[in-house]
Write the structure tokens for this entry.
Amino acid sequence: RSDILSEQNHEELNELNLIIQQVKKYQPELNKYTMIILNNQKYLHGRTKILDHRRHLLRVRFNRTCPYDVHSIYEKEKLFPEYLTFSNDFYDYLQNQHESLQKILSLIVQQYDQPTSLGEEIRQTFQFNSKVDQIIKQLNIYRPNYQMNSYRPDLMFSEGNLFKINGKYSFQPKICEINARFPFNGYFLSAALCSTDCHNRYSQKSSRIIETMIQTSKFDLTKRMFIVKSKEHGYDIHLFQQYWTKKSFQQYEILNLSDQILEYLICNNEINYINDLRTIFLLHDKRLFSLLSNQPFLYSLLNDNQQKPISQIIPKTFVINKIPNYLKDSIVHNKQDWCIKPNSGGKGENITIGVDVTSDEWSKQLLDSTHEQWIVQEYCEYVQYKSMNLCGMLLCFNEQCFNMGIIRMAPNKIVNISRGGYYILPFVHQQYIHSMNDKSILTKEKLHEQLIELKTTDKYWNQSVYLSSSGGSGGKRLFFATDIQENLRQRQILVNMMLDENIISDRDICLNLFQYGNIYRSFEIFNDFCSMANCTTIPMGADASNEDIYEMIEYFKPNVLMGSPYRLMQLAFYLEKQEKNEIYLEKIYFACESLDKIKQDYFRRIFHCSIYIGFYGSAETGVYACQSPKYSSTKIYLYPKELVQIEIVDSKIIVTNLIRKRNQLICFDSGDLGRLVSRNENSKYGLIEVFCSERLILIGDDDLSKSDIEETMKQIDVTEWQLIIDNIS
């Protein structure tokens, strides 16, 4: 139509018509409230009926391209550009804490109306008025299949030594409160910002937050939806203020509804709403924490010891009018250890922190008759990052936990964005699985290819890792990286087995002659074993002179000698030449190569020792097995089943490390041959017999270490050498 066309919009109209013609024709009924949205991957276009009868087509060009720019709602300047990095152990710790917490919270709600001592203790803790009490009891009757819906525990990063931020700042997480009134508070921002990095483990969960919540809620999306929110300033909920009808209710406003409406909400199971009123009244109430921090109560509630995992993460909490007098006196005089909070509300309103007020103000707040239902909670000092306190959020929905969302930062003790704080994203290294998708066996060659590729796919590949050298004696030297905390846990598991099987004890004095330097770890590994077993170590190292070693033996009188058979043989040669040789050792720990019968007999004569404990592993797997006194002088090794799973495929020893989450090792061909030795299936430890190793050359019934040969060749001025073995029958 010429009356609506002009030279300047003719081209744009053709563009829109071309897009429309390329799709299947659909003729909707257009009215003044209808708009069809088309997306050409660059701009959004809208087609609608306009009230002006002379125009029926309008092209709408938005100022921003798709996808939606979250920073049009959130101030981009508040987002720090860097990450805060955490370990996989911390990620898994929060998942486990949620599992325990979810079970406890569900049981508290279910037990609320029960005529038992537990039910009475729960009711006495909350001390609700009769109307709230009846609402909860009626809901337990008419809606017995309780679903918590959305609840968000807030995490303080308090001083402690449980985990580390950026591998540097030690902290211990504490759940200081649970937000349960507003289902989406904090979720949408986390979903938008934390879901875009394929190398970040948090992105796995964050990318599914909204979809999961919508599907799980089972809302009929064709029906009208309401948002219950307006009194307090927030962030996420205002994303919808232009689009959805809003009704404003707080807890007390729900109680102002007529009995008829409340009964309808309670009894009619066809009505779907989140959050459940029990979640709003019980989980959001801070008096709940006096139950969560009450160990005898949790023991009775669970009827087992499963309450222990949450004891570390819940601060000690008391309802003010239920504090015993002796404890109240202690709280009055030690205000620096406590804070006072209203039992309801949010955003840090009316919180009194003892260290920030005078003794008179503290006593006044604590003894105020209007504060009897408030709580006193243990106060923990924050760990700071860039001079700001940190507070995270655990995003939970029913039985699911999306782990930690965005982290809020503020210079104030009360941390929130709406009061001028900032936010920063968490990062956990994605779990890289070093194995094939079809469960085929992983070879060293393929593993080393993946190690090289890791440098190009993960920019954090060399951060917070324990490096060990792989290869060098028979092939190309490469470096294998494991998570530092996982590496320590592996050593601790092995030491626990050594203590259980009397392989090591806190009475041992161990002389360490293993090699160190140039990223070889043997020396350090055995020092760690001794420290974890609480026994003395004398860390001399392979490069120490025999004279100095002999002096240390005379002075400290060790009962355990540790080192490679090659280095121990050098020491034995030296000691044999000494006029006075009265060295008596109880045990010899060896690794890196085998200890044949000739060496054993020689050591028995020089060291007066008959127990030889071999250790088994590699740079890729770590040390995961060792011999016990029972299997001394054999090729049978003991290994913890919680640490590794061992399979034998065509006589090859195939190892899966069960505790590594970063740089996992699954179905790895160790290169050695062996067999599993049958043992009680219920035993914590398995047995494996190692026939031969690719690191050894078999000569009849004995073997020759490649490293022994190489060490000898280093002492001879030759550039190339070849070993020829002629078997003579």
